[in-house]
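User: My collaborator sent over this chain with a note saying "see what the structure looks like." That's all I know about it. Can you take a look?
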Amino acid sequence: MKWLRQLGPLLALIVMIVLLSISSPYFFTVDNLLNIFRQSSVNALLALGQLLVIITAGIDLSVGSILGLCAVAVALSLKAGWSIIVSIFICLLVGAFVGWLNGAMLTKMKLPHPFISTLATMNVARGLALIISGGFPISDLPASYRIWGASSVSIIPVPVIIVVVVYFIFHIFLTKTISGRDIYAIGGNKVAAYYSGIPTDRRLVVVYMLSGLLAGLAAIILTGRMNSGFPLAGMGAELDSIAAVIIGGASFFGGVGTVWGTLVGALLMGVLRNGLNLLDVSAYWQTVVIGAVIVWAVYMDVLRQRVMKKKRS
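Assistant: Without extra context I'll predict from the sequence alone. Here is the result:
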C-alpha cells in the first residue's frame, strides 16, 4: 500500500501524458511542456503550503485569497516607485502575516477547526484586495520585475527554477529537521505530540505562516507572468492546491505526505488543464472534470484509511 501511495501519482501522471500525446499532436512538444511547467508553478507553491497544513490534519482555504491580496500589494508597491526588493519583501510579509492570523486564531482563540479561521481570512483577504485596488487590476509593472514570472534561464523558465529550489528546501525541512518531524507528529496524533513535549501551538502557527508566505511567493511569480496585480487572482486556487496535495499521496487525516508527491500532484493538475484546453473542452466541463478529480482523490484517501484500520485491527 505504501508503494502505491508513493508511486501511484507518478504512474497516473505518466499515463495521462501518454494519452494526451496520442490525443493531440500539440501536447508533447517542448514549448507546450515548458508552458505546463510555467503555469503549474503557481499551484505548486500553493500546494506546498497546503501540504504543510494538511500534514497537521488541517486545511487552508485562504491561500487563493492571500495570493490575490499579495498580488495587489506587490503591484501597488511597484507602481508607487518602491524598489523591486522592497516590493517583494512587502508581498511576502503580507502573505506571512495573514498566515500568522490563521495560526493565531486556531491556537490562541481556540477556534474549533482551521476550516473556520481560514474561511474567515479567505473572505477578509479577498475583500481587502478589492478595496485596496478599487476592483481593478494594477498593470504595466516594471519590465525588470517580470523576470520572476516571464523570463527563462536558457530554455528553463525562472518560475520552474524557483519551484525546484523551494521544494528542495522544504524537503530538507520536513525530513531532516526537528520542526519537520514535529509537524508529522502533530498530524499523527496532536494530543500525543503535546504530551511528548512538542510545542504544538507554536508549530501550527509556523505552518500557517509558511503557507501564507508561499502564497505570497506564488503571487510574485503570477504578477511577473501576467504583468498585473489582479485582485481576483487565485479565485478557486485553494481547491487546486488541495487536489494536488491529496493526489500526491497526502491524507486529510494528517501525518502523511511528501514534498515530491505534492509536486507530481501539481504537475498532474497542470497537465490535465492543459490537455483539456488542447482538446477544446469547454471551461464549464473543465470545472466538472476538476471537481470529479477532487472527489476521486479524497475517496482514494478514505479507502487507504479503511485499509490501514483493517490492518491495525
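A starting point for your reply to your collaborator: The chain has a mean pLDDT of 91.
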